[in-house]
TrEMBL record:
<dbReference type="Pfam" id="PF12222">
    <property type="entry name" value="PNGaseA"/>
</dbReference>
<dbReference type="InterPro" id="IPR056948">
    <property type="entry name" value="PNGaseA_N"/>
</dbReference>
<dbReference type="InterPro" id="IPR021102">
    <property type="entry name" value="PNGase_A"/>
</dbReference>
<keyword id="KW-0732">Signal</keyword>
<feature type="signal peptide">
    <location>
        <begin position="1"/>
        <end position="30"/>
    </location>
</feature>
<dbReference type="Pfam" id="PF25156">
    <property type="entry name" value="PNGase_A_C"/>
</dbReference>
<protein>
    <recommendedName>
        <fullName>Peptide N-acetyl-beta-D-glucosaminyl asparaginase amidase A N-terminal domain-containing protein</fullName>
    </recommendedName>
</protein>
<feature type="domain" description="Peptide N-acetyl-beta-D-glucosaminyl asparaginase amidase A N-terminal">
    <location>
        <begin position="67"/>
        <end position="384"/>
    </location>
</feature>
Amino acid sequence: MTTPLPSPASTLPLLFLLLLLLLHPFPAIANLHNLRTKSLKLPPTHSTKPTEFFEVTKPISLPNTIPCIHHIFTHDFASTFVKPPFLTNYTPPSHCPSSHGFSKIVLEWNATCKGRQFDRIFGLWLGGVELLRSCTAEPRPNGILWTVRKDVTKYSSSLLSKRRQDLAVFLGNIVDGTYTGIYHVNVSIYFYPASGENSGGGGNSKAADLILPISRNVENLNDGLWFQIENSSTRIESSEFTIPSNAYRAVLEVYVSPHQDDEFWYTNYPNDYIVANNLTSTPGNGPFREVVVSLDGVITVGAVWPFTVIYTGGINPLLWRPISGIGSFDLPTYDIELTPVLGNLLDGKAHSLGFSVTNGLSVWFVDANLHLWVDREGEKTTEGKLVAHGSELGLTSDANFTGLNGKFETGASRWVSTEGWVKSSNGNITTRFDQRFSYSNSMEMGKGGDSQRVKQRCNVSDKVSFSGGGPSLRSTNRFSVELYTDSKAGRNNTVLLETRLALGLGNRRFRGGKEVSRLGNLQRARGEMVVQGDLVSGGFGATKQWYNYGGEEEKCYFRDVSSKNYTIVHDRQGIKCHK
């Protein structure tokens, strides 16, 4: 649950709410939304050892050099909701000299917590540039701990800048007589010196020379630096910027996370179904969402069809203990190539990048980092021009329902294309950026609305072509989620909540037509919760995950791991490549 403060309606006793549901059943996912705003007491544990939570991902490939450790801060996040972000002054490490620079920079977030608390979304920004978007683990009485390690080498121009910068962290938390968990956090950055052999890459793999924040100013904020986008497909949140006149390449990195009424957007009902059944408090607008990025409010430069990240308190919290959902500890980012539109930006004037959410409800947290490469050979890029651009969204929907039972089919497709040239000391290079999207969502409501079955597929393809400027870059992503939820009355005024889930992510990357990496990541989970009043009096959660990565430039890695009720029951991992 990433809404820090329960709504006024959620202050009703949960038992009273559940009795109402038994007499006047709402659809199953509405129950989940309501339960999501409750702090559910789990039965006490007899263990005294803290539980370590983790997200399955490949280890970061590190050079054979000894890192300099730069401790950034230690801080306790207690009553931080609706308060300014935590700020600390950041300067590059003076004790880490390296004649060849740094070939790898790794951010490490270590946290512990004990007691009772929701999961909380948080972000970390350096000079307005977001370095990490993440979700906390939910604590238990004996305590928890978790570590997030992220390769932040691509932010090296910000991390090594000599100018004074504030590092900001927003983690909105509430501590009172009910919510007792305080998040104790340590953050360090590891700088790995480069040797002569690994002193940095070239071409398209080189880190940007400059990164501009496309986010809110930290001054006078009682929130994160992200934009809050809600309740309108036409509402655009934007930020102005000016780029150097000698920039020759630009890539926008977008951070996205959905919350509150759109946290489970892929389960939201069509509005006709809501109106027909008088479900006035149930999130709607159907199950399709996208983030659209526009330049100066006129040109659509790209779109994001996000992966369905499930936070550590989502659907059924018992599923994510100790294995967290895919992407929950390090939310994915999405790149949009802006080089084709540089010709519009090299005039020395301020321009704006804006974000909107198609069909969006409250609330989406969105911001971005603008990565820029500059021409060291000249003070000014001589020319640039946007040659062509276009974008089109197609949506289809079909509904067949009687009362609270029915089936719904939703489909979507989109293409975005931009093309332009830039003339610099690298030559006159034409860049073309193409995005192709396809989407389907099948939803079935049964048992008078007490059960819901969702099957969603999303395919995304991005391609960047350089005419005279190096090999093309292409990536394909496949996102899938299958979810079944059911609620039924139990004995002694209890409610049994059943969940079955499959969550998948596939990614392939190509350079010059040759595959350079492949990732397959799949989670299957099932669980039950017996709820009585505000107490989870019983239940279980079991999760199995298969992770398989193969790369041309990095070692292969696989992991096959399973858990049940906080315990790892199977774990096998290695560096063997599996096709």
